[in-house]
Amino acid sequence: MKTLPAIGAIQRTNVIVACAATLMLLVLRSPASALSCLLGAGVVIANLFVLAFLGRLLLASAAGGAGSALGAVALPLKLILVVGLVYLVLFRTGIDGVGFAAGVFTQMVAVLVEVARANLAHNPAERTV
Prior knowledge:
Layout: H1 7-28, H2 31-64, H3 68-92, H4 97-122
Helix pairs in contact: 1-2, 1-4, 2-3, 2-4
């Protein structure tokens, strides 16, 4: 049986991966790229936090029967808002695109690490092959 990691575990791992990526970019590329990496990681961390909050709100409103239409509209509006803010940040300022992309990529790495950790911790017999 496969288990899923908690959002808090993903966020903690994302902070660790983002700090490591930022330090690597600081050493290997430039301070601007490292700062852009932190910004990209901050965007995806905030996005996941808001998504989790809206998901809980949507489930609570669906269970109560009231306000589910507002919750259903809130998720696409959040997506449009995040995409718009990322567009403004990337194309209206001097943010390094490579560093920003590296920061955004830390979320995917954190999810993969936490899924692997949760499944290996839940199924220790499957580790020995």
